[in-house]
């Protein structure tokens, strides 16, 4: 049996490392933050301590039983808590990283409760590097940019469907659609409408050829990009000219 001070040190250390991960999630405005991660890590450490030392003198030959049996339930049990942080809206799923951070904090708590300080602290450092730095790298290098496609056209049946086919052909995913016409926008001429598509682009897209496809649809007048990269690309069908700003 370890000393009382050792028990306190392990519990306090687990709360500290759980708080470090939790503060990062709190700063990122995630559903599970500082207190949740502290409690998960602290509880996992306590369960490990109970599993290792709480049953000494019991079981066959006073062995205390299998110390891994109770601790093993933490790994699967925390999955239910992590599932509560996962939100799905349409095709978008949020909270997976937070759920994973809760799960790994449970594992860190088990390591510290077992006295495996090196493994627990090294894992904490790696987790912080992943959460703080790799998220930026992912957005910078691998996430397809979101842009706003604005088209102006004459009202007709099936227009949005036709545009959708062109977007699908170019592997462009639609996130949101907003339609304006003369009824809700005085600047739009009679019989005309403006449609704004918030889309996610594939890694490679030929802007000019794509907009040519859009403008070749019946009733189409103008098409332009307005995106996160502040790229304004407009092609005017009537004038037959291209404007790039």
UniProtKB/TrEMBL annotation:
It is found in: Cell membrane. Residues 148-234 form the ACT domain. It is a multi-pass membrane protein. Its main location: membrane. The chain crosses the membrane at residues 36-55, 67-86, 118-137. Keywords: Cell membrane, Membrane, Transmembrane, Transmembrane helix. The keyword Cell membrane applies. PROSITE patterns: ACT. InterPro entries: ACT_dom, MgtC/SapB/SrpB/YhiD_fam, MgtC_SapB_SrpB_YhiD_N. Belongs to the MgtC/SapB family. This is MgtC/SapB family protein. It comes from Clostridium malenominatum.
């Amino acid at each position: 049996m370890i000393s009382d001070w050792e028990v306190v040190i392990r519990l306090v250390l687990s709360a500290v490392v759980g708080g470090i991960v939790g503060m990062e999630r709190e700063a990122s405005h995630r559903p599970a933050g500082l207190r949740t991660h502290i409690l998960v890590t602290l509880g996992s450490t306590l369960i490990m301590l109970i599993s290792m030392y709480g049953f000494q003198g019991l079981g066959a030959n006073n062995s205390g039983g299998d110390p891994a049996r109770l601790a093993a339930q933490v790994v699967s049990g925390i999955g239910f808590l992590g599932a509560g942080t996962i939100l799905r809206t349409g095709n978008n799923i949020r909270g997976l990283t937070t759920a994973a951070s809760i799960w790994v904090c449970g594992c860190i708590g088990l390591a510290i409760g077992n006295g495996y300080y090196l493994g627990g602290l090294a894992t904490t450092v790696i987790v912080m590097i992943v959460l703080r730095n790799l998220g930026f790298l992912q957005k910078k290098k691998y996430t397809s940019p979101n842009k706003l496609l604005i088209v102006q056209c004459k009202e007709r049946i099936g227009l949005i469907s036709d545009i959708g086919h062109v977007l699908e052909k170019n592997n462009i995913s639609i996130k949101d659609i907003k339609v304006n016409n003369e009824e809700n926008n005085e600047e739009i001429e009679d019989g005309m409408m403006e449609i704004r598509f918030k889309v996610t682009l594939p890694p490679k897209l030929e802007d000019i050829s794509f907009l040519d496809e859009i403008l070749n649809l019946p009733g189409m007048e103008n098409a332009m990009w307005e995106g996160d990269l502040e790229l304004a690309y407009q092609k005017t069908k009537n004038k037959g000219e291209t404007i790039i700003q």
